[in-house]
Amino acid sequence: MSALPIIGLWLGGWALNIWLARFDRPLTRGAVAAIFGLTVLLLWEMTVRIYQVPTIILPAPSQIIESLVQNRSLLLTDFVQTILRGALGGWVIGAAAAILAAIAIDRSPFLQKGLLPIGNFVAALPIVGIAPILVMWFGFDWHSKAAVVVVMVFFPILVNMVAGLRATDAMQRDLMASWATPYAASLWKMRLPAALPFLFNGLKITTTLALIGAIVAEFFGSPTKGMGFRISTAVGRLDLPLVWAEIVVAAIAGTCFYAIVALIERRATFWHPSQRINRG
Amino acid sequence: MTDGTLPMPAIRSFRLPLAKAAPVVTVLLVIVAIWYAAAIGMNARWERDQAARAGTQIAPSQLVLRTLSQDRPVLPAPHQVAVGLYDGIAGQKITSRRSLVWHAWVTLSATLAGFAIGTAAGSALAIGIVHSRSMDQSVMPWAVASQTVPILAIAPMVIVVLSSMGITGLLPKALIAAWLSFFPVLVGMVKGLRTPDAMQLDQMRSWNASRAHVFWFLRLPASLPYLFASLKVAIAAALVGTIVAELPAGATAGLGARLLSGSYYGQTVQIWAALFTAAALAATLVAVVARVERITLRKMGMQA
Amino acid sequence: MSVIEAQNVSLTFPTADGPVHALSAVNLSIERGDFVSFIGPSGCGKTTLLRSIAALETPTGGSMSVAGRDPDAARKARAYGYVFQAPGLFPWRTIAGNISLPLEIMGFSKSGRAERVARVLDLVELEGFGGKYPWQLSGGMQQRASIARALAFDADILLMDEPFGALDEIVRDRLNEALLQLWRKTGKTIGFVTHSIPEAVYLSTRIVVMSPRPGRITRIIDSPLPAERPLDIRDTPEFIALAHEVREALREGHAHD
Q: Which of C154, C171, C187 is the last residue of a domain?
């Protein structure tokens, strides 16, 4: 009998969405997604309460929010340590290094042929595995986390950027040749703009990698702050609501990070067909 | 349109493996050389400290030799890693706890199980999404947004929670691997199943084809290139997921556990050997998927 | 005085199936103010010849001079403007930005650039469209913008490789008329690759007929048509006779096959 409200809510949300989905407008599309998310949250809350699921296994959303509010200063410290210093710092360094390396490689077909297969190979490897090594080398603080992130984001961005620098077509290159364009001008006015859509593709992929690298690296040693550290110690104390609160922060941070990069992409590559479709 | 342009001189690229391999080999050699130089540089301090403590002087040549043969170097030299690999792979019985083959097998089995679950679930949900508008609008935004969430980072926690519920062994790791391979497959499959354009769909309509016909004869074949592209991403993600899932303290089997115990005891050679095994495993898995992709697509007349 | 000179020029591409003779024993002399069309079937080397004049291709034999020097020096001195088959505008720049791109590369001052951009936009009748992006314009307008770009830095020579090949006939007629006006107004020397007989006859003062395998010049026909050419000149007997002559020359070139 206790399952009745759960099933009822489920069916209600489902029916509402089927009805709303028929309109297919931007507003209703947003509403459908929001209703789905809300229904899942409510079902989660109800299931935990009705069946009295132990907090150690699955805390209710309300408990997680409570923990989020209570521990906000702690979470902020962790956010600064892991996201801003480790992930963002490493991502910026790694991206800058990859962009410069790609420009250097671009002039040498030999280096391209030599480095690209290796870059493609490395981009598919479980690079997080180097975390223990880098923690040994750079110490427990955020520097080692940033180093892990640098290595993780370097190759995907490199491979994308090199492909982008080659994305000019033969006619554009001939045009530049017909004006006797010096290398620097053709790089700045043709190759770099043409490479931007590819670059942003790499930058977007690596936002998530950066967060993963920074958090996982903390499992191999960290000062007494940071999201990875907090998750592992909170699990030890069975403070699951705090663990989930950290996860919520990580999820929001990841989504925002990605959204900000995507927003910059839209402004920088407004001319690209993939961005133009959105403009209608 | 190209009238007046000469047919481009078809300079057939030399398909000699040598011409293709030469730049790669050169770059690899340079990397190995840098590695040796770095090993000497990074391990030298410890040797100098030792010598200073003993109150002796060491000759530079002696110093170089010693930096390349330390027990727990800061950075093991390539040949030390090679020895570690050889010892771990061929030097042990494969059922031994010190055998890398055994650890790799533990990791591989969880990876494959998770990959299978994730691919099946992702494909099934994708099929539902392309056929149901309400499912599409409900689930897709969350599926896309969830790709920006660092799910992998909480893998160890999931393992601990599951083990507190008495679920241990292969299953929890496989679940994490499945979770990670689920989203690339879902997103890729939805994209692939939607590739048929309006003209092709109208063509099917003109024959009064049923939904099932449209699916089997049009949508599914059209989606395969996308499916394979996401499978390559998914299997690599599944492996990473399994390895990270093996990190929590207490895990004793698998390449992730090897990494962690190596880092606890400062056994750098062990870490590097485990790392290279993981790399080889990843490369093999991706290569296998790529091979299946080539054969399948060629059989279907799409060149890959 | 001849602006473009070619003596016994040949160009051979090495390919896996043996060498391809793209150009063989080409002799040509183009005077200042000429409008020269290159016409012929696929593979006759007309585009290769134009690209060789522009130093985008290097002949393997013979000698060539453009504006009194060798082609590569002429390219470096920015002696010509080149218009390709497709507009080739950069999507991230506005029309005005695209036209000013060669000017930026060549180091014109900001005010000089603005003045020139305005002038050539006017010349190709695109005034008011400078702030638009290429993808907001029709194909014909894009091609006009690319012609404006080639005119912007005021080179004496304009090289055009089937510039209107991808456009429909109505747009093409209008652009042909506009190009003739522009040529009379500016007095530039124009090299124009086409595969359309009416287009070649309508535009040119001289028509260079080429044929393939090996790519070579089979005939050079001087046009007796007056400089002033309204579109309906194409219905006059002189025009039809000239078109006929070109067609015969093209057929002769093929007789060897």
A: C154
- C130: three-class secondary structure by DSSP: coil
Torsion sign, CA atoms A265, A269, A272, A276: positive
Q: If pLDDT is split at 50, 70 and 90, which confidence band does C256 have?
A: low
pTM: 0.81
Specify the 3-state DSSP secondary structure of C84.
coil
Nearest CA in chain A to B43: A137
Higher pLDDT, A113 or C59: C59
Q: At what angle do helices C95-105 and C110-123 cross, to 10 degrees?
A: 130
Is A115 close to B139, i.e. CB distance below 8 A? Answer: no
Is C241 found in the same domain as C183? yes
Most A-contacting residue of C72, C76, C101, C106 (CB-CB within 10 A), to test interface: C101
C195 is written with which tokens? Answer: 């595969």
- A114-134 pLDDT tens trace: 887 888 777 767 788 888 888
Cβ(C101)–Cβ(C149) under 8 Å? yes
Closest CA to B155 of A90, C144, A126: A126
What is the distance between the terminal CA atoms of chain C, rounded to a whole angstrom? 37
Q: Check residues A92 and A238 and name the one with the higher pLDDT.
A: A92
Domain count, chain C: 2
Is C36 inside a domain boundary? yes
∠ Cα A129 B156 A138 (to 5°): 40
Q: Please indicate whether, in this complex, the C-beta atoms of A136 and B268 are within 8 angstroms of each other.
A: yes
- How many Å from the N-terminal Cα to the C-terminal Cα in chain B? 27
C41, C212 contact by CB (below 8 A) = yes
Which of A17, A67, A57, A56 minimizes the C-alpha distance to A40?
A17
Query: Does residue C110 sit in the same domain as residue C120?
Result: yes
Contacts of B134 (CB under 8 A, 6+ apart): A14, A17, A18, A20, A21, A32
Chain A positions touching C81 (Cβ under 8 A) are 178
Q: What pLDDT, in 10s, does the model give residues A183-192?
A: 889 999 999 9
Residues of chain C neighbouring A179 (CB-CB closer than 8 A): 78, 102, 105-106, 153
Task: Return the bridge partners of C192, or none.
Answer: C37, C160
In whole angstroms, what is the distance from residue A257 CA to residue A238 CA?
29
Indicate the burial class of B266 (C-beta count within 10 angstroms; 0-12, 13-18, 19 or more): middle
Residue A280: the pLDDT is: 36
Q: Are C16 and C67 within one domain?
A: yes
Looking at the fold, whether C172 and C238 belong to one and the same domain comes out as yes
CB within 8 Å of A61: residues ≥ 6 apart: A41, A44, A45
Asked if the Cβ–Cβ distance from B4 to C22 is below 8 Å, we say no
Unique residue bearing structure tokens 């010509």: C80
Range of the domain at C101: 89-154
Contact B4 C44 (CB under 8 A): yes
Residue that has been written with the tokens 């084809």 in this structure = B209
| pLDDT tens string B99-136 | 888 888 989 999 999 999 999 999 999 999 888 888 88
The complex scores an ipTM of 0.78
- How many other CB atoms are found less than 10 A from the CB of residue B200? 14
Domain map of chain B by residue range? Answer: 1-74, 100-299
Q: Phi and psi at residue B225, in whole multiples of 5°?
A: -55, -40
Write down the pLDDT at residue B8: 38
Which CATH number is C60's domain given? 3.40.50.300
How would CATH label the architecture of B100-299?
Orthogonal Bundle (1.10)
In this structure, are residues B186 and B141 in contact, taking their beta carbons and an 8 Å threshold? no
Nearest by CB: A175 against C78, C84, C92 = C84
Whether residue B104 contacts residue B281, with contact meaning beta carbons closer than 8 Å, is answered with: yes
**How far from each other are the two terminal CA atoms of chain A, in whole angstroms?**
51
Phi/psi at B95 (nearest 5 deg)?
-90, -5
* Residue C226 CB burial class (10 angstroms; 0-12, 13-18, ≥19): exposed
